[in-house]
Specification:
The chain is mainly alpha-helical. It has helices at about 1-5, 10-25, 30-40, 45-55. The longest helix has 14 residues, at about 10-25. The protein starts with a helix and ends in a 14-residue tail after the last helix.
Length: about 70
Amino acid sequence: GIFNRKLGKIESAMRDFSKAIVVAPRARCPYYERALLKLHLGDREGAKEDWQKLLRIDPEFDDYYGKLRSL
């Protein structure tokens, strides 16, 4: 997912992160990365849902970029 995101392949990255969540639903990184992508695409509600799921998994997760805290 991160590789595709860096290449600008946003839809592929989104699919990659979604697949990662299915395979490892308690992994934090895919939720975070997918939330950032959704926010980038203007899907504020989708980003908020992923951010809230992530915080249920790890309430202490650090929003490195500070983009999701305000959702």
